[in-house]
Amino acid sequence: MLAFIQAGGAGTRLKEITGDLPKPMVPICGKPILLHQVESLIRSDVKDIVMVVSASSTVVQDFFGDGSKFGAKISYIVENQPLGTAGALYYLAKQRDEDFFLVMGDLMLDVDWQRFYAFHKKHRSFLTAFAHPNSHPYDSDLLVSSKEGKLLRVLSKKEPRDDYYNNLTNAGLYVVSKEILETFQGMDEPIKMDFEKDLVAPSIGAVPVYCYRSTEYVKDCGTPDRYYSVSRDLEKGVVASKNLSHPQKCIFLDRDGTINKFGNFVTKAEMLELLPWAGKAIAKINTSGYLAIVVTNQPVIARGETDFAELSQIHMKMETLLGQEGAYIDDLFYCPHHPDKGFPGERPEYKIVCECRKPKIGMLLEAKNKYNIDFAASWMIGDTCQDVQTGINAGCKTILLTGGDPHPYAKYGDAKPDYVCENLEQAVNYILSQEGE
Ligand SMILES: [Zn+2]
């Protein structure tokens, strides 16, 4: 498999650290970012690499040569004038006719590339963007996708945003099907093009474009603050450990009474109110080695008290409010079912005995499949004994929060949590203290 890396680009905001080095050659813990990328690709058996470099410097070619000393085959496209993030595909289209990864060369990353490509093939996608939530969605371009991951729209950070949104952003990595290269084959000469604006945006709706949601480490290190934070993550082993070829540890979170005030059932977005410590607690999970995944029973769907569109609004509000506090959830799974039939206004198709309603572990199993989660290294936090029973059923450690009302599910009252505390912040602090983090 082929990787096409945009390795030009000056690190203007990193000058105090790097002098005149191109940003991809900036060393992190002694190795250029670009070498971290090449090593990650090689670990996934991607050894055929084309790098786009600027004619103004040969520092990349001098370092990598033909790639043989690193175990890869590396060739170069030299741009005499900057062609943007996609213009050099004109040259690639003359040489190649195969699917490839497109990688922005200034990102610190460690990714299971074969897993990424398998998603692309499974969905018969033409363009697949690597997508993840981040800690500053309010000033990021956002991806709007279907439940299956089909990209529906890109919300530019430049447009006014007065609505709630899902926290999903574009990381700067793609799988590109060879058909996309046909765009360039009719051109007489290369022109400056932006990959997102000139290729991804016009493709939405015309050909299948997907978002691959992943919790793997992909971060820009283009400012001194980010540079030092990425260096620390690399030293601590966080970058490598988040590669989904390794089992992941996760903190599963109940929603109502754990992240937001329970009160009565939340059936409208305006009813959702975060608990005051939720943002801070989840932001702590985000900078630890744990994933933060919400698993919530929402029988309000089966009972006809709300619908999927409104539930989606409720979750967008939660993600928007968390994002304002620099926190995000890695994913969310909900069960819309309820077993007891015979209520006015109910939706019979959801009045079933399912495999996802807690304390069954269907939602946790789905998360495990998607993110390679190791239950034994993971935790379940919730405010009811039903949550505790869920964690026990999966083989996770469990924490019961007493700040809410743990009693409505008295039938699981015998479930014994590993730890009991008042609220989510205390629970997260406890887990991280167990880790020595
Ligand atoms: Zn269910």
How would you portray this structure in words?
It is a single chain. This protein is of the alpha/beta class. It has 2 domains: 2-236, Spore Coat Polysaccharide Biosynthesis Protein SpsA, Chain A; 247-435, HAD superfamily/HAD-like (Rossmann fold). The chain has 14 helices and 19 strands. It has helices at 15-18, 33-43, 59-64, 89-95, 113-122, 182-185, 195-203, 224-236, 238-241, 278-286, 308-324, 362-371, 385-394, 424-435, and strands spanning 2-6, 27-28, 31-32, 48-54, 73-79, 100-104, 107-110, 127-132, 142-145, 151-155, 169-176, 209-213, 217-220, 250-253, 291-297, 331-335, 379-382, 397-401, 419-421. The chain is globular and about 70 Å long. The mean pLDDT is 92. The site of zinc ion has 5 residues, from loops.
CATH architecture of the largest domain: Alpha-Beta Complex
The percentage helix is 25-40%
Strand content: 15-25%
Provide the CATH superfamily of the largest domain.
Answer: Spore Coat Polysaccharide Biosynthesis Protein SpsA, Chain A
Class by SSE composition:
alpha/beta
Question: How many structural domains?
Answer: 2
Count of distinct strands? 19
Largest sheet: 7 strands, mixed
Radius of gyration: 23 Å
**Termini Cα gap:** 38 Å
Biggest sheet strand order reads: 5-4-1-6-11-8-12
Which hetero ligands occur in this complex? zinc ion
Broad shape: globular
Ranges where pLDDT stays below 50 over 5 or more residues in a row are none
Number of helices: 14
